[in-house]
Amino acid sequence: MNMKKRIISLVCIAALSLGLFAGCGKKQEATTEAPADGKKEIVIGFSMDTLKEERWQKDRDILMARAQEKGVKILIQAANGDDNKQIAQAENMISQGVDVLMVAPHNAEVAATIVESAHAEGIPVLSYDRLIKNADVDLYVSFDNEKVGNLQGEYVTKMNPKGNYVYIGGAPTDNNAHLFKKGAMDVLKPFIDNGDINLVYEQMSKDWQPSEAQKHMENALTANKNKVDVVICANDGTAGGAISALAEQQLSGKVPVTGQDAELAACQRIVEGQQVMTVYKPIPKLAETALDLAIKMAKKEEVKTNSTVANGKIDVLSYLLEPVVVDKDNMMDTIIKDGYHPFEEVYKNIPEDERPAK
Ligand code: BGC
């Protein structure tokens, strides 16, 4: 920031905190050049928890491409699972004068601070994929996350309506992890109540770490003398961890394991038989919808929503997309047809004469 801008901004912050005048502060720090048509360029900030799982890299790449297509500027930063870093990065974007701040929070509760800081500068906040709890979030764009859990539960109860079930969940700090679990448990409940299903082990996995999931699976196997009939894993990363633990006991491919995200590794495991299903959430749809709605918010245009989701403080206006079950049978009609992963990659370990026709 040059000295002149710094002085203007300091004067504005002081004026705002004294309540002297409105309309100052936010726009002063925008780093963008005015486009040729003379209108101010729209700047969207995106504060991400992580880029660890493959899907978040897709989110980032698609958002960047879409922003370019739409002629808006997007600033993206990922915090590597560190709450303080995420707050600092978000505050930095706020001070750069973004028009809208999108946030995929590491910690649903802690991120409420970010909403407060953004609102103090008149910047609306879009909760991206993961809901920020207990805050005046302006818009939430995600998938129907309880449905993700429903789909996992329905799939395995159809396959195996009886037996010993293990549930390996995601990060307790991520609101989605609770929604996925609720969705799965709603389906299991009648089976548990009538004694057909025994929930022999359930644990959440800190920061969605596959190594944590692997430890949970090892513990579940030990505690139940390897008598486990189904493993519901909240996502593909944790499924990978659980499958490693099953493999140590020569049980990989024998015990159905679920997942979510349609990661390439999971799609490969599905066609090879180590994982039964994943829940596919077409990330291009999420990223494009979120960006388009963020642009509308920036232009103060009407934003269409299709739902509301309670976050502990308010019913947040929401736009929720539909998740899709993917297994061996519909891999071609979903992942391959959409170009989400290339055919050659998904089927790379399957002998050519056993691959489905393209
Ligand atoms: C997302 C999942 C992802 C997980 C771990 C969740 O909030 O919805 O798609 O696998 O976080 O990053």
UniProtKB/TrEMBL annotation:
It holds the Pfam family Peripla_BP_4. One of its GO terms (biological process) is D-xylose transmembrane transport. Keywords: Signal. The keyword Glycoprotein does not apply. Coiled coil: none annotated. One of its GO terms (molecular function) is monosaccharide binding. It is found in: Cell envelope. Residues 1-22 form the signal peptide. InterPro entries: Bact_Solute-Bind_Prot2 (IPR050555), Peripla_BP_I (IPR028082), SBP_2_dom (IPR025997), XylF (IPR013456). Residues 44-301 form the Periplasmic binding protein domain. GO terms for cellular component: outer membrane-bounded periplasmic space. The keyword Signal applies. It comes from the Bacteria. NCBIfam families: xylF. This is D-xylose ABC transporter substrate-binding protein. It comes from Anaeromicrobium sediminis. The gene is xylF.
